[in-house]
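note to self — DONT lose this again. spent like an hour looking for the file last time. sequence + predicted structure for the chain T wanted, 608 res
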Amino acid sequence: MRTRNNRDESFQQQKDELLSSGKKGSVDTYIVRRLLRYVKPYRGLLAAAIGITLVGSALGPLRPYITKLAIDDYVAKGDIPGLALVSLALLGIILLDGVKQYTTTWLTQLIGQKAVLNLRMDIFRHLQKLSIRFYDRNPIGRLITRTTNDVEALNEMLSSGIITIMGDIMQVFFIVGLMFWIDWQLTLIVLAILPLMLYVTLTFKKRVRVAFQDVRTHLARLNTFFQEHISGMNIVQLFDRQGSEYDKHSAINRDYRDANVRTVFYFSIYYPLIELLSAIAAGLVIWYSGIRMLDADLTLGVVISFVQYIWLFFRPLQHLSDRFNVLQTALASSDRIFRLLEETDTVREPTEPARIDSFREEIRFSNVWFAYNGENWILKDTSFTVRRGEKVAIVGATGSGKTTVINILSKLYRHQKGSVTIDGTNIGNISEKNLRKMVGVVMQDVFLFSGTIRENLAFGKPGVTDEEIREAAKIVGADRFIRKLPGNYDYRVRENGTGLSAGQKQLLAFVRALLYNPEILVLDEATSSVDTETEQLIDAATAKLMKNRTSVIIAHRLSTIQRADKIIVMHKGVIRETGTHQELLTEKGLYYKLYLMQHPEKMHLRTD
């Protein structure tokens, strides 16, 4: 891991140096260097592919030369046996060229797939390290575009781009060399068209690069829109927004279409221009050859071979433009991917983490300040203590900072001021793995992965036995409804638990937490989305789950936390009151008002 980090820092330094140099193409150079890192482990396959491609690039240019020999040395002289031999030689070259094409295609595809596999693994590994703040500001659809469309663009370049470009360039050199060998004057006529072709190609390159960047940007917007609206389709339909959302999608789709049409426009100009230049070169060669043939200064075989060479010469150049299309798309995609891989908004692990084998004394928040954005403080000078074995509840109105406390305790976010310690050790000095073995959280919005009930329950403890899973489910009260499902514990959960009720998902989350067996249990609004019957099941389960365990309970329903050892009342990020249920009722403060709001039948308790 250390080696990987050092390598990443080295690449970042290279990028900074290239960018500061101000040279055109510096960023592209940096991207290519990064890509070579993924190809390097397969340098044996790469060397074989390059070698076969370079050697095999001579096979195509040999065909017109053999055609010249056949016409001038055998057909013109009526040498039938010689013509048969040269025809067999031509057939052999064609067969060898086919073998070369097959071998290079297989090798390049293999290299591309292996390299892209490693790249995908690096992207997913890096995504797991990024902080929750990063996901707050980056739409899921954009990230999906990076890991699918952009990676596939790279795969295409690695599979059929770079090596093929090398082969095409080498083939051009072979063609020019043989053309000069046959007749240097006709060769100069053909090459006279080359400067104009280079100008057209460079102009095309500049325009199409920008166009492909626009295509990727609009594709990311389209994926984001799709992801959001498919996930929230029930809201769209409930509020009868199908028409307006269709119009929004139509506008985004039009932008994506227009970006693609721009690329098509550039190609529709470029290809005909290349064809026109090829035709002009062929016309000039035929015209000049005709003059020389009248003077008996040129043979028919030379003329025919040169006409073949013209089309053969411009074909690799056209291929280069196609490969350039692939290359430009891949470079634009690579830039986005490497920006993602260079994202530094990660949860920083301590260089020398403190080790806590078990929770012994207390959790202490001391003068903690926290804001998600700027100085829009969610927590303000927050201080409290949770002692080992205590059951502490945190209550307050929506937005008071209750869940933020949990996010900081579990290191999903880092606080800006103050300190949070466990047994006197700052949580910033505790590794995530060590901390999260101690702290288990049951969130308000339960997330279930696609897979079986058993796989979801064992998510935090992969080696758990089936008997332990069933026993935990019985304790929580989930076993009863699980056994009614088709396949019971092998029931396939659909995306995010679709088909299960909110209460059932909450019960599964409780089983998962019980199997995880944390020393510090956090319940974040764990009963806010369940009916009364399920709440009674959960209340009974939590009583068993919290026994001999330190617990922090976030709750809207005050009925669920009346037996807590301590209740912390928060309001607008500030702790307003602390005490037991009875003590806070006696004080007749904010908690007392919240209690009366939820239990209007207790209004007779009011004395003010």
